[in-house]
Amino acid sequence: MLEGYVHPSFRAVATAFERQLPTELPGGGALTVRHRGEVVLDMWGGRRSPDERWQKDTLATSFSTSKGVASTLLHLLADRGLVDYRTPVAHYWPEFAQNDKGRISVRTLLSHEAGLYDVRHLVPDAAVLNDWPKMLELLAAARPAHRPGRRHGYHAWTYGFLVGGLVEQVTGKPLAQVLHEELVEPLDLDGAYLGLPESEHHRAATLVLPEPRDAAIVPVPGLASRMTRSAVRSQTRELRRALVPHGMRDFDLNGPEFRSACNPSAGGMFTSRSLARIYGMLAEGGTVDGHRFLSPRTLAAMGTRQSSTPDVVLKLPMHWRLGYHRVFSLNPRAPHAFGHFGWGGSGAWADPSRRLSFGFTCNSGTGSPVGDLRIMRLTSAVLKAADSR
Length: 389
Description:
The chain is α+β, with helices and mostly antiparallel strands and 389 residues long. Helices cover 33% and strands 14% of the residues. The protein is built from 13 helices and twelve strands. The strands form three sheets. Strands 1, 2, 3, 4, 10, 11 and 12 form a seven-stranded antiparallel beta sheet that branches. It has a three-stranded antiparallel beta sheet with strand order 5-7-6. Strand 10 and strand 11 form a beta hairpin. Helix 2 packs parallel to helix 7. The protein is globular and about 55 Å long. About 4% of the residues have low confidence.
């Protein structure tokens, strides 16, 4: 079922990946792993639509995996001294100071501590998620759900707009252009978009979606078994506040409007190869082919844990870094790794201690807002293979 390349040391990863591909339902995916600056696995399989096989250049909507890419763009600016993590966001984005948000720092924003996660009250209808200027206007005028900096709650739909809006204020350029200039061109990426051009729509995988839409919002894998029924119900309510805006049942995640819109919270379109290349740059100390993208000081700040208590939305300690979360695996552990997983199963991460990076895209699955057991199993297999190499 699989096509592509795998290094002999990573054959067990390929086997684990093949076992996860749907056999009866439509669906497919791609997985790329880089280790010590080398591509050790680059494989794809299954179907990108009911009538088409997954291709080498297939793009997949990667949901919250998009947040890690947007965060990386902001860190590139910080590394040049254009952004300071301690400075209020309103210093760069004056309109953001409305409704007691003037003291929210860049660090607070990146750590999901701004209190701007309650999308059911912040956004009048899901259709607004396709309107970049309107989303920035709403968030600039929004009032936090709690005092910023006191708690952290997963900003599922709003995080990318907040970070992306800040990037645009600092650069004076559209976010899609910044992505192209800062990562796509210099890293020679084969597919990374925050707003898919019409000319590339033919490459997009069709999402296999559950019905009803909000039934897909389930507790984080492995957590429900340790929670009481009332706690599970509480978590589900918080997830809906943060993940299910009004009108979501009528929101077309396969429609051209969503694919074309700039939505760095959930609408990024990527190949697994591009994700592994971006995170490979982070895994290699910020340097690729002799070109330095990030300094050791910035990389250290990016991967520093900002919190250890349970997230108020996800009810799980996410160990937020600056725009990333811890890497979930079954075994072995990866305490120095960081990345971002997405609803539906996609994800990408870097482990600088192992010089290891991972990119996974797919078009079928639900799971939690931050991946499911598939990506945890794949991550575990990759870590074991790298440690044995």
